[in-house]
Fold:
Amino acid sequence: FSYALPQFKKRNAIYPGFRVAAVSETQDGHLLLGGEEGTLALVDAETFTIRWQAQIHSDIISPILVSADGESAVTASGDGTIAVTDIADGDLVSRIETLPGKEITDIAFLGSAIIIATHEDGTIAHINYKTGKVIAAFDAGHGWISSVDIVGSGAEYVTTGVDGVLSFWIAGSKLPLRQLQAHKDVASGAKFMKVGSTEVMISTGFDGSLKLWDEAGRTVMADLDHGSAILHFDFHNGG
Structure:
């Protein structure tokens, strides 16, 4: 559904014919939809018509990233692979077999060529998505990892753990720079976004807490009680 804000009036709707698990936005404002059964589709944001639809994966797609040049959709899936798809026509460009037998939970770009991939069993992998090679893979030591995001514009990234711990890492190291106990239960996400002109980090947890942190992810600026457990959290710069 598409809504006009702040009136929250429904403007349009699309029924793509598959159950949608992930949504992202292309650089020219169109929508990429990822399905529970592996379908990827490009939707015209003005007319809500499907421009193309393709069976890219064999399992749920989540998340969907757009490459820095805006030409490719990079998707992770429960089938354990990362796929690169041409946004213009929906053709599969390449498929990366990351770590056989391991399910990917989240991915994030580190620079223009490296992808950080987190897995259900707690493995973190550094992957060159242009060559398809796994540069490094290691056990983060905290079990299931729900999300990953890049800290600022450097080589640092943050992951969220089943024990409520946020771990901050630097590319090239298998040991965390620092860790903090952010939540009393599973940490379901930690993402950076801009609020006005200020970049902040938001973390969420099964404890029902949504926390707003400073741009370094060190100081809590607000702690909001969501009530029920927050099972998933994500943010896309396109809105």
Observations:
- Residues 102-239 form a domain with the Methylamine Dehydrogenase; Chain H fold (CATH 2.130.10.10).
- The first strand starts at residue 2 and ends at 4.
- The radius of gyration is 18 Å.
